[in-house]
Amino acid sequence: MIEVNTNFIQRITIDWNKIAEDSYTRKIDSLKGLTQLDFDHAVTFFVGENGSGKSTLLEAIAIKYGFNPEGGSRNYQFSTYDTYSELLDGICLARGAIHADWGYFLRAESFYNVATKEMEYADLKHPSEKYHEKSHGESFLALAQKQFKPNGLYLLDEPESALSPQRQLTLLAEIRDCVKAGSQFIIISHSPILLGYPRAKILVFDDGKVHNCTYEETESYQITEMFINNRNQILRNLFE
Ligand SMILES: Nc1ncnc2c1ncn2[C@@H]1O[C@H](COP(=O)(O)OP(=O)(O)OP(=O)(O)O)[C@@H](O)[C@H]1O
Description:
Number of domains: 1
Largest sheet: 6 strands, mixed
Radius of gyration: 18 Å
Bound molecules: adenosine-5'-triphosphate
Shape: globular
CATH architecture: 3-Layer(aba) Sandwich
CATH class: Alpha Beta
CATH topology: Rossmann fold
């Protein structure tokens, strides 16, 4: 059976001729040969070593789609740091026929600023969730539970960073409910729990290219499994 792609973002293309010769993005091994990526699953993960270019690409996709560079919904427009994505000049999004009803760009690194803005944007009709009065993990999950809605586009950069393993499982269930209601997710993650989402596409930004892999082939899975099964030996080798 051929499944119809109902994603809001179905493909990205990058025209490197439009990107400055001295752009740092040209030095990122995984990205410099990248001209096209297809988003044909409801959930796509970006995985790979630190500094391999995942956030650079996700940020460019987010800004091109109309999100604020530091995160939030498309209604958030603020800047605490002059961020400019150098990929933006060359990136093109192929959108689906149906537009997303809602969306959210969640970045672990600038969540504090978004939580501050959320208080400023609050009014009588939209009271603040007061994320600053919750713990980091509580506020992250509360935000997901409030912002994940049907037919939405969600771009998440390391959502696991504040979450306990138990709450990561809860997040998996939230993602599942939202996907069943027509939403699309693109998620950067190092979490062997989140990466276990069934039937997700996993794109690895290692070995000088962006390529597919299975859950069991991810480093997050392999290193976690190896560590749990051989903890004493690994620690001995590490410390000696
Ligand atoms: N504004 C910038 N100017 C120059 N270099 C940058 C800039 N932003 C990122 N880089 C570099 O680009 C490379 C990719 O960074 P990026 O943040 O995309 O990596 P990542 O895969 O998301 O890493 P992590 O898993 O640590 O979050 C890194 O080497 C980084 O130092």
